[in-house]
Amino acid sequence: MPAIIIIPLAIRKMGLRGIPGRWVEETLSSPDETVPGYGGRLVAQRVYVVNRKRMMLRVVYERVNKDYVVVTAYLTSQVTRYRK
């Protein structure tokens, strides 16, 4: 089982954005889809309902050996924009 390592800046940003760590883990282990990001990074995406509104959680990460290193995570209401 690969480890999920969340860098300190990402932990701080998740706290400011109200994103539970459990959601990041769920998104990485069972994403709706994974798309390429910038600089060889990957973006795992999963839709959640927040305050009765569909929001997409985007988790930007790198694979280091077999582990996931989370660089940042954010919620967006632009679900159709990022859906592939």
Give a short overview.
The chain has 84 residues and is of the alpha+beta class.
Topology-level CATH name: Nuclear Transport Factor 2, Chain: A
Largest sheet: 5 strands, mixed
What is the molecular shape? globular
Radius of gyration: 12 Å
- Helix % is 25-40%
CATH class: Alpha Beta
Percent of sequence in beta strands = over 45%
Distance between the termini: 27 Å
User: What is the number of helices?
Assistant: 3
Domains counted in the coordinates: how many?
A: 1
Class per helix and strand makeup: alpha+beta
Describe the structure.
The protein is of the alpha+beta class and 84 residues long. It has one domain: Nuclear Transport Factor 2, Chain: A. Helices cover 27% and strands 45% of the residues. It is built from 3 helices and 5 strands, in the order E-H-H-E-E-E-E-H. The protein has a 5-stranded mixed beta sheet. Strand 2 and strand 3 form a beta hairpin.
Give the topology, please.
Layout lengths: L3 E3 L1 H10 L3 H9 L3 E4 L5 E9 L2 E12 L2 E10 L2 H4 L2
Parallel strand pairs: 1-5
Antiparallel strand pairs: 2-3, 3-4, 4-5
